[in-house]
């Protein structure tokens, strides 16, 4: 996966290719900040910058804007939560066969249904570009 990311996303030609995308997103950020300043609204800069970075990542990786169908942030959060959960089978390996907490079943469902569809979309985008 690291090699794929280095070759497909972080290669010099790809980084240069996405420069207009980054300029566009930063331009939209500045316009929204100007509008908020004109209206004297309070802006959570951390949230706005995180949204811009997320939009850039979505457009670079998936080739389109953020979509309700693919909640990448939610998927990552769910997986990190699963990894950090207490699992009895980590301490008593012979219990892994029984999956008493249904963690393995839940993880398999998460990976097969959500993450694989996201990966398929990503691979389709890479092959088409």
From TrEMBL:
Subcellular localization: Membrane
One Gene Ontology cellular component: membrane
Keywords: Heme, Iron, Membrane, Metal-binding, Monooxygenase, Oxidoreductase
InterPro entries, A to Z: Cyt_P450_sf (IPR036396)
Keyword Oxidoreductase part of the UniProt annotation: yes
Cofactor list: heme
MF term (GO), any: monooxygenase activity
Family: Belongs to the cytochrome P450 family.
Protein name in UniProt: Cytochrome P450
